Amino acid sequence: MQNTILGADATPGAPLNMRLERQRLHDTVVDHLRNQIVEGILAPGTKLNERELCETLGISRTPLREAMKVLGAEGLVEILPNRGASVSRMTETEIWETFELMSGLEALSGELACERITAVELAEIKALHYAMLSCKAQNDLPGYYSRNQAIHNKINEAARNSVLRQTYIAMNRRLQALRFKSNFKADKWDSAVHDHEEMIKALDAHDGKKLAAVLRQHLLDKRDAVLSVAKSVESTADEA
Q1: What is the pLDDT, as a whole number, of residue 38?
Q2: What is d(CA 142, CA 148) in angstroms, rounded to the nearest whole number?
Q3: What residue ranges of the chain are covered by domains with CATH 1.20.120.530?
Q4: Where in the chain is the domain with CATH 1.10.10.10?
Q5: CB hemisphere CA count around 164 (13 angstroms)
Q6: pLDDT tens-digit profile of 8-55?
Q7: What is the pTM for the complete model shown?
Q8: 7 pLDDT band (50/70/90 cuts)?
Q9: φ, ψ at 48 (rounded to 5°)
Q10: Using CA atoms, how far apart are residues 216 and 237, in angstroms rounded to an integer?
């Protein structure tokens, strides 16, 4: 079957090339499905039909099932025996507790980053910040979000704590779709941009306590925005 998601046929080759091609296909399928979930194209609770996805992506069931397992381990997909897979749906309690934990991880990342960040890393974060502002000016939410997440990610990397890094990645993957949706309202988006401007100032001053406080509140505000949207959706459904 043609690997249309890669834009090329999987032609036979040396064993190493075959392994590389297989890994490349696996990573591409995972990234594609993860982005679809994050951007809400595949909404929470959506049943993932293997046949339809294979036809759409131009792949066999093996790489799709391997990708499902990865997304299942990340908490983005729920796989039930004899019932297939569906996009995970977090409860209100799970959302509250996960954002609460993430706020602490982000705060610690910021505090440590202010102690350990290099001039090159700081310049990279500033460049991402200005690129993010450009995306907002163009009302490009996916572009804004990708740069927004890159900033948070680089702050976490600059903390230089491997255990914190692993925990951060695992928790953040569960929240990516919700963090993306939290900027749908203009006032929330403006507030998030203001927070990022404060983050840059604190990083520039190497003020760990200030950056930790900004990041913690930033995540708690995200939590409140997400829960507000969820309650609004439930209320609309009840009235229908």
Answers
A1: 82
A2: 10
A3: 92-239
A4: 15-87
A5: 21
A6: 334 444 454 545 466 678 788 999 998 898 888 898 899 999 999 999
A7: 0.76
A8: very low
A9: -95, 100
A10: 32
Q: Which fold has domain 92-239?
A: Four Helix Bundle (Hemerythrin (Met), subunit A) (1.20.120)
Give the whole-angstrom CA distance, residue 32 versus residue 36: 6
* Phi-psi domain of 20 (left: phi exceeds 0; alpha: psi -120 through 50; beta: other): alpha
Angle at 68 between CA 233 and CA 41, to 5 degrees: 35
What's the DSSP call for residue 42? S
What is residue 19's predicted lDDT score, i.e. its pLDDT?
52
Percent of the chain with pLDDT over 90: 57
The dihedral through the CA atoms of 145, 194, 226, 95 has a sign that is positive
d(CA 214, CA 232): 27
pLDDT tens digits along 72-120: 988 889 998 888 899 989 899 999 999 999 999 999 999 999 999 999 9
CB 99 within 8 A of CB 181: no
148-192 pLDDT tens trace:
999 999 999 999 999 999 999 989 988 888 887 776 677 888 999
Buried b vs exposed e over 101-132: b needs ≥16 C-beta within 10 Å?
ebbebbbbbbbbbbeebeeebbebbeebbeeb
Q: What DSSP element (H or E) covers 83? A: none
CATH class of 15-87: mainly alpha
